Design the sequence.
């Protein structure tokens, strides 16, 4: 016998008391089987089923492996010899593997010297000691040089070019040797890393090629090995996975100053949408925040505490926030609550087993949808039309708050406790009733997290969020994000602060 929702609705306390003993035992056994099936479904994860790791509960921490107990006698006397032939039953802990290339692994190098299409000479122009303009000698030889691969746009598509950069030393008349050297910019420090990431011109990849690689990774969600395969097959360019990873991080680090300017601009916006979603950083649960206005989109990866929110919305912000029901948002007075979240909870109530909860869910769902439709049709002339709807909605919430059904009571109290934010768009017709803008802005990152399982370092998280911020803001402002990011990288390698993103082209 299969128990359906209709059967569960009939199983009230008086009905169960009216049953004979054998029938009650049969029903109890069937209910036991249903509960066992539900518990087995709850206990499923990526370790004991074919479910992907992205379906695991982000709040459930992985159990830490216990350190194996040593079988050796700690009170061994001095001079007592150990017996290596005696097997040790306790398992040895596996050494922790550091990310990246491992010691002793095969290296990556070029079998052939690149053939440059042109040679670019860099001469020092002025003596730092006497400020005298330097004359270039006829027979000058470079003291250093390096190859740079760059992506170029042509009339028919794109191509990879190779240039050789030469740097020279010139002797000034005052006796001072003056060197020309590649530009250097910001240095990103990361604890535990052997070599810090430096923005410098002394690299093998040009700004546009770096931007192209970052676009394949961040925007089109390609892995490092697949990017390497793509460049090798389609352009004949061989780059190591480490070089590709450095290009992606360099593009994000170069965008840090741009994001700081965008945060300052965000405080002047009239309406900002906010949302957050779980994010993994080397197995640790973090959260990705997003703040979206009509011309700005800013991403941030951190904890879910209110301190992270204050990095996006400071005390200087005086506009409206459109958010869900998370408690961290509720301190802001001018706030519009997302009705889409409440509608989804009302839809869930319409499928409840309890018949009264079903009817109350239908009532709440009808009033919420009617309120949105009325505001969309009448706009500012909504007072007479919306007043009876608001009265019915409040009455439904007051009745639902007195019911015993847990989900119905919780939804009714949620609307009543946040009533001013729920109906804020009635008094301010310019406010949107839902937070769809922020949810759509997070969709790309959610898909990326399911593919890549997040980031591994705090620098990687910040760089990824910075790239998303610049790309999405350029899209909102009708700008080409790749040309802008390429310019930002070029300026960052010289130590020059980049400009802000133009509003509209």
Sequence:
């Amino acid at each position: 016998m299969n128990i359906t929702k209709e059967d569960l609705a009939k199983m009230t306390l008086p009905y169960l008391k009216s049953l004979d003993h054998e029938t009650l035992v049969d029903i109890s056994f069937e209910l036991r089987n249903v509960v066992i099936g539900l518990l087995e479904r709850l206990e499923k994860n990526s370790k004991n089923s074919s479910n992907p790791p992205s379906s695991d509960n982000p709040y459930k921490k992985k159990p830490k492996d216990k350190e194996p107990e040593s079988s050796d006698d700690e009170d061994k006397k001095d001079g007592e010899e150990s017996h290596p032939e005696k097997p040790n039953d306790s398992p040895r802990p596996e050494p922790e593997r550091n990310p990246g290339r491992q010691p002793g692994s095969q290296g990556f190098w070029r079998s052939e010297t690149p053939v440059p299409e042109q040679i670019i000479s860099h001469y020092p122009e002025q003596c730092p000691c006497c400020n005298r303009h330097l004359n270039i000698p006829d027979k000058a030889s470079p003291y250093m040089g390096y190859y740079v691969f760059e992506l170029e746009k042509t009339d028919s598509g794109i191509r990879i070019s190779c240039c050789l950069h030469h740097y020279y030393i010139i002797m000034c008349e005052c006796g001072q040797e003056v060197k020309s050297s590649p530009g250097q910019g910001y240095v990103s420090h990361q604890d535990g890393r052997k070599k810090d990431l430096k923005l410098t011109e002394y690299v093998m990849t040009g700004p546009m090629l770096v931007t192209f690689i970052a676009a394949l990774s961040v925007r089109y969600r390609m892995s490092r090995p697949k990017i390497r395969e793509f460049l090798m097959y389609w352009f004949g360019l061989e780059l190591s996975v480490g070089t590709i990873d450095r290009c992606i991080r360099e593009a994000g680090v170069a965008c840090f100053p741009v994001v700081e300017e965008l945060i300052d601009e965000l405080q002047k916006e009239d309406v900002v949408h906010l949302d957050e979603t779980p994010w993994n950083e080397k197995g640790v649960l973090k959260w990705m925040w997003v703040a979206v206005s009509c011309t700005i989109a800013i991403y941030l990866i951190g904890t879910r505490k209110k301190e992270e929110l204050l990095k996006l919305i400071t005390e200087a912000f005086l506009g409206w926030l459109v958010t869900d029901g998370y408690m961290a948002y509720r301190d802001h007075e001018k706030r519009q609550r997302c009705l889409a979240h409440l509608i989804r909870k009302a839809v869930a109530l319409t499928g409840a087993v309890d018949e009264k909860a079903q009817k109350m869910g239908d009532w709440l769902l009808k009033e919420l949808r009617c309120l949105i439709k009325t505001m969309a049709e009448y706009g500012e002339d909504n007072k007479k039309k919306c007043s009876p709807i608001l009265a019915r909605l409040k009455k439904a919430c007051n009745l639902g708050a007195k019911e015993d059904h847990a989900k119905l009571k919780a939804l009714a109290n949620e609307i009543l406790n946040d009533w001013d934010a729920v109906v804020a768009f009635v008094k301010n017709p310019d406010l949107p009733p839902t937070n769809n803008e922020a949810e759509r802005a997070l969709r790309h990152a959610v898909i990326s997290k399911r593919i890549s399982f997040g980031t591994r370092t705090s620098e990687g998280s910040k760089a990824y969020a910075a790239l998303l911020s610049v790309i999405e803001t350029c899209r909102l402002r009708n700008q080409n994000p790749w040309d802008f990011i390429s310019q930002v990288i070029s300026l960052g390698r010289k130590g020059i602060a980049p400009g802000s993103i133009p509003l509209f082209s």
User: Anything to note?
Assistant: The radius of gyration is 32 Å.
